[in-house]
Input
Amino acid sequence: MSVSKVVASPSRSGVFAKDTDSRVELFTESISFDERLYAHDIQGSIAHAQMLEKVGILTTEERTAIESTLLEIKTEIEQGEFETSISLEDIHMHIEKLLIDKLGDTGRKLHTGRSRNDQVSTDFRLWIRDALDRVDQLLLQLQKAFVGRCDQDIDTVLPAYTHLQRAQPVLAPHYWLAYCEKLQRDRERIADCRKRLNVSSLGVAAVAGTSIPIDREDTASRLGFDGVAANSLDVSSDRDFVLESAFALTVIATHLSSWAEEWILWKTVEFDFIDLPHDFCTGSSIMPQKINPDILELIRGKTGRVIGSLQTLLVLVKGLPLAYNRDLQEDKPALFDAFDTVEACLDIAAPLVEGATIKADSINARLEKGFLDATSMMEYLILQGIPQRTAHHMVGALVGLATENNSTLAELPLQEFQKLSPDLDEKIYGVLGVQNAIAAFKSYGSTAPDQVKAQISNWKTRLGL
Output
């Protein structure tokens, strides 16, 4: 994209006695970041021109000329034949100026019945709508990667943690499906956000509407909107669709960051749970043995950028009076960056998940450490009629004894159990040990093998696998 000085913006009316100061042009330009709206601006303008023809503002010849010229301009932009200038401020004025250069007065008619306020809002809604659809597909791709691991990892048991301390055993697919659930809620937030976003602001003009007999429902239909905004003051001032999009992206980023943090830990020698594909790792400039999980670290780190974008947008709108204010120009860099960051993270996460290898031998070598069966034992005692708090204390005492003896609960002699409850017999060993503890689970949504297999089947159906 080349930059050159050209004539003044078409938006500058005859009321001004002096040309814009060059420092103002530099300070107020947005073409450096909003050029990416070009396709949606042209899409909106074509729909607007078609509506103007329908209501009799444009002739068929004028509408045809405008539409074909806008498509020609789009091609020029995509082929890199489009010069920009800070004196034309933004992509919208660049396209209109070029249209006027090519068509003269016919080009000047296009802006009838609209303002840059509703034009920009419409373009941004169209761009975000497409971006939300891309994110949804990337989330789906990551869900498929997690579900795609489940069959191969079905016999692997992992320690689940609370407070980063070993808690209870779970099947590895139960872990993978936990992330599928989080990503599904992310997709639902995206879909919900899209519903509120998909309302047309085109035709509310600057702030109060227009006296031109336009048909807002017509342009909304042509652009795929579900309806039209009912209040011109509201929609010309509002950016909650930007905030909501940024929030949805922030939640996605935090989910990715949590997953990245976990796998960074799992990759350490201390955990030794997982191997990452080497083509998604980096080395050290000085230590030849290093295989660093830099991609995961960057996903974790880039989450801060997305959170920062949401913060920026919230502060941007917190004190704005009705209706439009130029502050809103600053909504685009933050949201563009949030989308770019999340899309990049999601795009690289799926192949990383697909290519990782669970280190079952390493996990199994230490799986009985940490008394992962303690809760299953407590629940067994409860089913024998012992009150929960009493059973909780009893198992705690036995864990203390096993710790002193450097043994597992399953290695304690039966008489130690019978000291606490004389009615206990050999059956108690049927819930001790990680594999027995796994088999003891019963509740819906648990890591019980039949529950996990049913959930795998369910997710395969939901995702079309």
